[in-house]
C-alpha cells in the first residue's frame, strides 16, 4: 500500500518527539506536560500501553517501591503520580491500610495505562519508519506509518522536531542454540515475555524446563510448581549462574541505583566500565528474597508426607545445543561448567527466562549514522545528559532512555531512576531547570573525588591519591 505522506505545516515543528511509549518515555511525557512552552508528541507502534503483559503473574510485585513511579522522585506534586492515580480511582484509603510499599505488577501496569489514556500528545498505533537530519531546516524529519486495528498501514506521515527522545525499550533475548526451536510452532519453546499467553499449554505438558535464574525465571518456576500435582511436579529449573542467588538488596547496595553512582560510572574510562558491568549482575539479575523463600516453602510443603518433590534445580549449567525429539519434544544438550560434565535432558516444554537486550538503534537511526560518534566497540557515545554525541553540525539533540547501560551503568533500566532521567532531559532541553534536582543522593561516595558539589557539612580532608603520594 502506498499512501501520500501527511506533512505538518513547515512553521510548526515540535520541540520534542518521543519514539516509543514505555514507562520511560511515558515518564518524560508526564513531566513535560506542565511545561506549556514545549510542543511535544510521542509515538508508539502498539495500539495501547502494555507493560510486559506476559509476566503479569498473580501476586508478582515490582522490585522497587511505589515511589518509583513515573514522576514522584522528580516532582512529588505531579498529577501523574501513583498516588494521584489511586485518588482518581478512590482507592487511597484501601492502599493506606494495605501498607504495600511494593505494589503488584498488575497495578503498576494499570497505573501506567491510566496515565497513557489521559495524558495528551500520545499517539499509539504509529510506527516510526525513519529519522533524518534536515540540514537546511536544522530539524529532524521523522517518518511514520499510522496503523489500523489489524496492524496494517492506514496512512503515512511525517513530522519535524528540534529534539528526539528514543525510548524503544528492550526485546526478548533467545540464546542461539534455541532460536530454531522457539520459531517452530509445534514445539512449546517460549520466552518468558509470552509466558501468560502460553501458561495453560505449558501446565498441561508432561515435563517442563525453565531456563534462567533471574527474577522472571524464579516467578515462573514458582507459578508452574504451584500448578503441578504433588509428587508429579516433573519440572526442571536450569541456570548458568553458579547459584540461584538473591538480589543485592541491602540499603547501601541499593545506592548503585542512585544518580550519584550513575555520574560516577559515566566518568570511568570505557575499558573500566566494560569490565565492571558484568560483575554487577547480582544487583539486577538476582532473585528477591521473598520469591526465594516462597519457592523453598512450596518445595518444603511437598515433603510433609515423606519423599521429595519431583523437581530438579540445577545452577551452573549451559545449554550447548538443542533439537527436536519426534515432533513435539525437545532434547537439551547440557554442560556443567564447574564439573566439566555433559548430559542430555528430554522435556516437553521449555520456558526461556533468558532476559532482554537493548533494541538496536542502527536501523531506525541509519539516516543519522554519518553524524554519530562511537566508542571503541562501535556503540553510540552518550553524554551525561543522556544525549547521543553527534557531529557539531547537528544542532538538535537525540536523548536515549534505557539504551545507555554501557555509559551509565546498571541503573539504566531501573524504574527508580526514570523520573530523574526524564527531569535531567527536560532540564537540558529547556535550559531553564524546571525540575531542580538534588546535588547528592547517596551516603556512599563513589571514588575519591566528589561527583557533586560539597555540602557545608561534608568532610574536605579527603585528598585524591596520585602516583607520587
Give the C-alpha Rg.
24 Å
Proportion of beta-strand residues: 15-25%
Please, what is the average pLDDT?
91
Poorly predicted regions are: 1-10, 454-469
Strand order of the largest sheet: 4-3-2-8-19
Instruction: Please report the distance between the alpha carbons of the first and last residues.
Output: 71 Å
Classify the secondary structure makeup into a structural class: alpha/beta
What is the number of strand segments?
Answer: 19
Helix fraction, binned, reads 10-25%
Major sheet summary line: 5 strands, parallel
In DSSP terms (H or I, runs of 4 or more residues), the helix count works out at 13
Global geometry: globular
Oligomer: single chain
Summary tags:
five-stranded parallel beta sheet, 469 residues, disordered N terminus, alpha/beta, globular, disordered C terminus
Written description of the protein model:
- With 469 residues, the protein is of the alpha/beta class.
- Helices cover 24% and strands 21% of the residues.
- The protein contains 13 helices and 19 strands.
- The chain has helices spanning 23-32, 82-88, 92-98, 105-118, 179-182, 199-203, 215-227, 259-267, 270-279, 281-284, 289-301, 405-408, 418-430; strands spanning 5-7, 16-19, 40-43, 122-123, 126-134, 139-147, 153-161, 163-166, 170-172, 189-191, 208-211, 235-238, 311-314, 317-325, 329-336, 341-347, 349-352, 356-358, 397-400.
- The strands form five sheets. It has a five-stranded parallel β-sheet with strand order 4-3-2-8-19, with helices on one face. A five-stranded parallel β-sheet has the order 10-17-11-12-13, covered by helices on one side. A four-stranded mixed β-sheet has the order 1-7-6-5, with no helix packed on it.
- Helix 7 (215-227) links the parallel strand 11 and strand 12 (235-238).
- Helix 7 (215-227) runs parallel beside helix 11 (289-301).
Amino acid at each position: 500500500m502506498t499512501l501520500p505522506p501527511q506533512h505538518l505545516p513547515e512553521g510548526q515543528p515540535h520541540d520534542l518527539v518521543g519514539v516509543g511509549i514505555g514507562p520511560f518515555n511515558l515518564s518524560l511525557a508526564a513531566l513535560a506536560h506542565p511545561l506549556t512552552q514545549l510542543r511535544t508528541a510521542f509515538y508508539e507502534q502498539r495500539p495501547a500501553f502494555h507493560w510486559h503483559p506476559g509476566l503479569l503473574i498473580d501476586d508478582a510485585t515490582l522490585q522497587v517501591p511505589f515511589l518509583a513511579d513515573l514522576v514522584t522522585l522528580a516532582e512529588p506534586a505531579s498529577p501523574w503520580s501513583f498516588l494521584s492515580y489511586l485518588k482518581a480511582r478512590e482507592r487511597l484509603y484501601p492502599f493506606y491500610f494495605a501498607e504495600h510499599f511494593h505494589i503488584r505488577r498488575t497495578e503498576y501496569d494499570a497505573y501506567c495505562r491510566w496515565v497513557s489514556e489521559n495524558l495528551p500528545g500520545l499517539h499509539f498505533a504509529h510506527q516510526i519508519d525513519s529519522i533524518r537530519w534536515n540540514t537546511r531546516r536544522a530539524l529532524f524529519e521523522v517518518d511514520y506509518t499510522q496503523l489500523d486495528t489489524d496492524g496494517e498501514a492506514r496512512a503515512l506521515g511525517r513530522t519535524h522536531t528540534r529534539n528526539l527522545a528514543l525510548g524503544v525499550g528492550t526485546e526478548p533475548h533467545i540464546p542461539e542454540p534455541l532460536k530454531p526451536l522457539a520459531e517452530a510452532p509445534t514445539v512449546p519453546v517460549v520466552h518468558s515475555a509470552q509466558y501468560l499467553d502460553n501458561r495453560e499449554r505449558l501446565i498441561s505438558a508432561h515435563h517442563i524446563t525453565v531456563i534462567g535464574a533471574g527474577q522472571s525465571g524464579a516467578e515462573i518456576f514458582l507459578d508452574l510448581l504451584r500448578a503441578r500435582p504433588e509428587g508429579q511436579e516433573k519440572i526442571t529449573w536450569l541456570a548458568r549462574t553458579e547459584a540461584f542467588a538473591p538480589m543485592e538488596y541491602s540499603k547501601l547496595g541499593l545506592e548503585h541505583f542512585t544518580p550519584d553512582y550513575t555520574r560516577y560510572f559515566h566518568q570511568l574510562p570505557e575499558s573500566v566500565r566494560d569490565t565492571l558491568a558484568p560483575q554487577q549482575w547480582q544487583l539486577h539479575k538476582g532473585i528477591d528474597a521473598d520469591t526465594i523463600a516462597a519457592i523453598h516453602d512450596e518445595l518444603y510443603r511437598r515433603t510433609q508426607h515423606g519423599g521429595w518433590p519431583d523437581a530438579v534445580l540445577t545452577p551452573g549449567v549451559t545449554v550447548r545445543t538443542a533439537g527436536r525429539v519426534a515432533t513435539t519434544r525437545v532434547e537439551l544438550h547440557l554442560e556443567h561448567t564447574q564439573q566439566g560434565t555433559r548430559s542430555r535432558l528430554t522435556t516437553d516444554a521449555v520456558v526461556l527466562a533468558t532476559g532482554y537486550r537493548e533494541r538496536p538503534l542502527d536501523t531506525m537511526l541509519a539516516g543519522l549514522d554519518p553524524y554519530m560518534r562511537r566508542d571503541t566497540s562501535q556503540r553510540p557515545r552518550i553524554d551525561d545528559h543522556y544525549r547521543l554525541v553527534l557531529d557539531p553540525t547537528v544542532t538538535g539533540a537525540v536523548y536515549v532512555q534505557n539504551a545507555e547501560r554501557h555509559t551509565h551503568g546498571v541503573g539504566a533500566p531501573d524504574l527508580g531512576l526514570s523520573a530523574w532521567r526524564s527531569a535531567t532531559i527536560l532540564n537540558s532541553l529547556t535550559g531553564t531547570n524546571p525540575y531542580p534536582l538534588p546535588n547528592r543522593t547517596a551516603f556512599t561516595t563513589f571514588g575519591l573525588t566528589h561527583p557533586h558539589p560539597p555540602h557545608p557539612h561534608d568532610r574536605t580532608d579527603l585528598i585524591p591519591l596520585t602516583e607520587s603520594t
